[in-house]
UniProtKB/TrEMBL annotation:
GO biological process: protein K48-linked deubiquitination; proteolysis
Protein's recorded name: Myb-like domain-containing protein
Similarity section: Belongs to the MINDY deubiquitinase family. FAM188 subfamily.
Annotated region described as Disordered, given as residue ranges: 1-44, 66-90, 106-163, 175-223
Biased composition range(s): Basic and acidic residues: 24-39, 66-85, 114-160, 175-203
Cited InterPro entries: Homeodomain-like_sf, MINDY-3/4_CD, MINY3/4, SANT/Myb
CDD domains, A to Z: SANT
């Protein structure tokens, strides 16, 4: 469900968005121009929040943090100073952000200087008495018994934001009670002027004077403290920082707990169906509910999964792409992602995996897609870490045939949902192990693998966040499965990148206002960063949309392909084929369609020197294979040779 509006009428910030904001601000250059910096933060956050909302929320978080640590912001300091200036007797009070200094007004001659017990105990201020000598400092001697009974209190005017436990450093001068000469008074006046000048310096340069150590016995018998009321300097709190430290981020799942298992609740089951179908009474058809992740029996295609019926091709193709990721490039490269990732060419035996490696590949693919949905913030995709810094992974399983959700007119059984249990995993190892322990369920030919994976990714991303990921027209959230039973782009993007954004271009696009600050501006979410797997589509050949660099140039040369309302895969065992190099005049890539009932390998040769190459990407005749058109959206003007295989029209 969407977050309820806040007091200013804007959607309230969720915990997930708040954690994401802190990290995005921390990763953004603080030296940027202010407007540009918060525009960048808004774009990186990719939740539809404007730069003004981001700025206001971060300021609010910083003020809360400063209050907890005894610090005040510059804005609070100004407000505090203005308030103090309007109070009676507030002369001489100056408030500096992140540092508190108080310079009291001049003290009348008849008011004695308060005393303090050096043992650190607070005492009460004695009533004013006329001085014995007009020019001598007013120092009163008291009997030892009276001294023990009456303690003096030094009142320091300080804002409430300073914690009462904060250690206060007070400059103290110890003198003998028998003789206080005029010369000593003069000596005190000189440092007073120097100390007042010190106040005018930046807060970072203000010294804190430690009190002289005084032996306890001398304190009792010989010495009494004279405390200067001219200035009380509160010890500097830790310097305020613009960006929160990692350990300061408020995150409920910043701990590594053991996995726990719970039954899927009726409310969550209905919410899942409402999100997927826009109708909580709807349910999956058999093409979805009886589709697992199993391999073909064709000897030359042992790397290929099989799809039984049309419908869940988007899910099967995405899993197939990650299966290729494991089989071709192996475990040594699995933790690599982003621009710095470097992979080697495919393993020599990638075409002939054994049964064990087939199972490992499916286990890896399912676990990585679920974990990617859990640790992603706004499309950050498949980053790995020991502990999730955002939310735990929710692995859905159906270990037995017993339903725990009762069938009713509002909730129908589909053979899967009513039996589903949810395992909460706080680290990748537990996520992988949970999938491995239930691998037979995911890989059963007519099992519930497809639905369980979809539920897992949605719950790991959180239903509320999935709704926010998607572009909505007039508040209408698109359903994730369309009229004909096909997964839409949001669903495929969730499985591939961990975020259910609606588009395939890079980053965000804003219509109506290039800053996104206007209420009339519309923000459209795209792919936030490069991932392991890419995506190409026939719609780009027709000019209907574009795929950005993040999808066209993935870490691995593997692409999910959308063509004619169907999803399949293109891939290459050569790592450098992720990028287009026009110096390479000829290269081979492979095509695989889980629904195509392939009985042989399909290798496409791309040739830049071929004759009769069509001009443009989408202007060919209807007899041109759609896959050829898709290929040219990435590699440009190339000939495509199917090497004897029958082209797919």
């Amino acid at each position: 469900m969407p977050a309820s509006p806040s007091a200013d009428g804007n959607p309230a910030w969720t915990k997930t968005e708040t954690s994401a904001l802190k990290r995005v601000v921390r990763d953004t250059d603080p030296n940027m121009e202010k407007q540009e910096r918060w525009r960048t933060v808004s774009q990186k956050l990719a939740t539809g929040k404007t730069k003004r909302e981001c700025f206001n929320k971060y300021r609010e978080l910083k003020e809360i943090r400063n209050k907890e640590k005894g610090e005040i912001s510059k804005r609070q300091a100004k407000e505090l100073a203005d308030a103090k200036a309007n109070e009676p007797g507030a002369e001489g009070v100056e408030v500096v952000a992140d540092k508190l200094e108080t310079v009291p007004a001049p003290v009348p001659a008849m008011v004695p200087k308060p005393e303090v017990d050096l043992r650190g105990k607070e005492a009460k201020v004695e009533k004013a008495r006329p001085p014995q000598e007009e020019k001598k400092p007013d120092v009163e001697q008291k009997p030892e018994a009276e001294k023990k009974q009456e303690e003096e209190e030094v009142k320091v005017d300080k804002p409430q934001v300073v914690e009462p436990q904060a250690e206060v450093e007070v400059e103290v001068e110890v003198v003998k009670p028998e003789a206080v000469e005029k010369e000593e008074v003069k000596e005190e006046e000189k440092p007073k002027e120097e100390e007042v000048k010190e106040e005018e310096k930046p807060a970072a340069e203000t010294p804190v004077v430690e009190p002289e150590p005084v032996a306890q016995e001398e304190e009792k018998t010989e010495k009494k403290a004279v405390v200067k009321t001219e200035e009380v300097v509160v010890a500097d709190p830790p310097a305020a920082v613009d960006l929160p430290a990692e350990e300061d981020v408020d995150d409920s799942f910043d701990k590594d707990y053991p996995p726990s298992t719970d039954k899927l609740t009726l409310d969550t089951a209905k919410a899942l169906r409402k999100l997927i179908f826009r109708d909580e009474k709807a349910m999956f058809n058999p093409a979805w509910s009886k589709q697992g992740f199993f391999y073909t029996k064709e000897e030359d295609l042992q790397y290929g999964l099989i799809q039984l019926e049309g419908g869940p091709c988007g899910v099967v193709a995405a899993v197939q792409a990650y299966v290729f990721r494991h089989m071709l490039f192996g475990e040594a490269n699995e933790l690599l992602s982003g621009d710095a990732a470097v992979i080697s060419d495919a393993k020599e035996n990638w075409k002939t995996p054994g049964k064990k490696e087939q199972k490992q590949a499916v286990c890896y693919a399912v676990a990585k897609m679920i974990w990617g949905s859990a640790v992603s913030k706004v499309g950050t995709g498949d980053k790995f870490g020991k502990v999730s810094k955002n939310r735990p992974a929710m692995v859905c399983i159906a270990p037995d045939d017993k339903a725990h959700l009762t069938k009713s007119k509002d909730f129908k059984h589909d053979g899967v949902t009513e039996k589903t249990q949810v395992v909460t995993c706080f680290n990748y190892e537990d996520c992988y192990q949970t999938v491995k322990d239930n691998l037979s369920t995911f890989m059963k030919k007519d099992g519930a693998g497809v639905i369980l994976l979809c539920y897992s990714c949605i719950l790991s991303r959180e239903i509320e966040q999935v709704v926010k990921d998607m572009d909505s027209a007039e508040g209408i959230v698109p359903r994730m499965i369309g009229n004909h039973g096909y997964a839409n782009q949001e669903f495929v993007n969730l499985l591939m990148t961990g975020a259910a954004v609606s588009n395939t271009f890079d980053g965000q696009k804003i219509l109506g206002d290039d800053t996104g600050a206007s209420d009339d501006a519309m923000t459209f979410g795209g792919i936030a960063q490069q991932g392991d797997i890419g995506f190409l589509t026939l719609f780009e050949a027709f000019g209907n949309l574009e795929c950005g660099k993040n999808f066209k140039v993935p870490v691995c040369p593997i692409w999910v392909v959308c063509s004619e309302s169907h999803y399949s895969c293109l891939f290459s065992p050569i790592a450098k084929h992720t990028v287009v190099d026009e110096k390479v005049r000829k290269m081979d890539i492979y095509y695989y369609d889980p629904l195509g009932e392939q009985d042989e390998e399909i290798k496409l040769t791309l040739d830049r020197d071929a004759e009769d190459i069509p001009e443009g990407g989408g202007e060919e005749t209807d007899l041109t294979p759609p896959i050829d058109k898709v290929v040219r959206t990435k590699w440009g003007r190339v000939g495509v040779d199917w090497n004897g295989a029958e082209p797919i029209l």
